[in-house]
Specification:
By secondary structure, this protein is an all-alpha fold. It has one domain. The protein has 3 helices and no strands. The radius of gyration is 24 Å and the shape is elongated. The two termini are 44 Å apart. 0% of the residues are buried.
Amino acid sequence: MIEPEKTRFIGLANYAAFLKDRAASYYLIRSIGNFLFTVPVQMVVALALAAIFSSERLRGKRILRTLYFMPSIIRRWRPSSS
């Protein structure tokens, strides 16, 4: 890209080489499988927690919400260096 006169378009050759590579196709299939497993599980867990935390019958709702979100709040907080 620094020298445009030396660049040439090779079309879909990189994709063809990628699909012929055994290791690359193995990791592509593994990544897709991982996605198909983790996304639905995370969605179900998130919806279940949202339903639990918004329930009217839940006692100590404020404390439970605080305890649940505390790690994300603490992790982002950084003390000043002074």
